[in-house]
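Q: Convert this sequence to structure tokens.
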Amino acid sequence: MSLKVSDLQKHFGSEPHRVEVLRGISFELGPGESLAITGPSGSGKSTLLHCLGTLSPPSSGSIEIDGKNPFALPEPELARFRNRVIGFVFQAHHLLPQYSVLENVLMPALAFPDLRQHTEKCALELLKKVSLNNRLGHLPSELSGGERQRVAVARALINRPNLLLCDEPTGNLDRSTAQSVAALLFELHREEKNILIVVTHSLELADRFPRRFELKEGACVAV
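A:
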């Protein structure tokens, strides 16, 4: 598994009102590597993550995941690729309120049943790893903020993605809970040997990564 980003640029609108958000971003990551991306609000961190996650195509430049350009795929195939290869953990956990903890974790595995290799057993194992195996039938409203975020982490890993993207995964948590969720992310990253990219305002979290970029005026600056 590899990720190669070459001269990535992203803008919105057209002249004379075009807004340049990302300017010439390039980097590469291999299996088991991790990267933190920091920067002020509005610097393009989430936009970059959405491009890497194939949710938004770049305006120019390229993204290769395992040597493939995902944006060359027709939309149905791109959706399957995204489901199989990429996992997301968002600041707002986006759990479905009407479904239980176990059901929320299983959702990505049910999206494309013909691709599913993991079953309820895998979900149970993940929930045990995130210390929620005693909360399987609970609804999100019955969980604390930290517990909901741990459910989101388990859900992101249900299809064993090669690329795990996290957008402010500890942003809504108190310091103790944030440290716990961060430790969990690193532990599971080591076990899965995936590529981990985290966008964060937390310098404490970013300092734990061997590689770190700061977005300045749409460009990545190594820190």
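The first strand starts at residue 3 and ends at 12.
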